Amino acid sequence: MKPITRSLAVLLTVTFGLGSLQSAGPAPEPKPAVAGQSNPGDTITNSIGMKLAFIPPGEFVMGSPKTEAGREGHETQHKVTLTKGFHLGIHTVTQAQWKAVMGESASRFKGDDLPVDEVLWSDAAAFCKKLSEKEGRHYRLPTEAEWEYACRAGTTTTFNTGDGEDALAEAGWFGGNSDAKATHPVGRKKPNAWGLHDMHGNVWQWCNDVFGNYSNNAVTDPAGPVDAGRQIYVLRGGDWRCAPRFCRSAKRFGSGPNFRDDVFRGFRVALAASGK
Q1: How do the domains of the chain map onto residue ranges?
Q2: According to CATH, what is the number of the domain 6-10+39-272?
Q3: What is the pLDDT of residue 276?
Q4: Beta-carbon neighbour count of residue 47 at 10 Å?
Q5: Taking the CA of residue 68 as centre, how many other CA atoms within 13 Å lie in the half-sphere pointing to its CB?
Q6: Which three-class secondary structure string do you get for 217-243?
Q7: What is the model's pTM?
């Protein structure tokens, strides 16, 4: 199922430079945790029961090779270095977690263990701000580079469980296995190597970045383009109705921060390893 939405139409009006495409190849291995630091996938739990896994610093090739099925031209491959480890929610924010912070629902489908599914980018940012005030730690949305790095967890395949629809079915809910009825409870599918569930499918996931062209060159700790005038923010991962190509590790989508449509949108939170 290809989600034809107004936000997709808006996205397609943006001109993307295709740039030079690198050949596919093995991604550099993530750096091991240093002494006294968490190991990849180690979790911490906050006051509302949210578990976050440690994501180590490291390098990877962001984007997709020319040979990947479903590839789009703005997925230019380029080397990314992330110099700081961080924590990331092991699954998307649930309705119970949302209500514990915001006190109201933000979902079409109801259930405490279901993901929030009608969240605007501005809503997600407001949740992070309130959770930060509650916890005394700085929660935020992950950058697009952090999201893809965490999703891949050292893999270079289409999905973090491999290539093809069967591999996707192990990792997430999509149009081929969700019966096209509703979102599913979080954490029911196979986690990746760093303990993250539902990076593919169920609900699209907001990133902090404005949508823009990738660099053709190697970058370090990218935070995305600075273009407040465009007001299209990155979504990743696909949702429960999507065809496999929309759920790929490299797939990029976008929408306005306050634009409502029929796309099911959630998010997961990030936290610096220092908590600041």
Answers
A1: 6-10+39-272
A2: 3.90.1580.10
A3: 67
A4: 10
A5: 29
A6: CCEECCCCCCCCCCCCEEEECCCCCCC
A7: 0.86
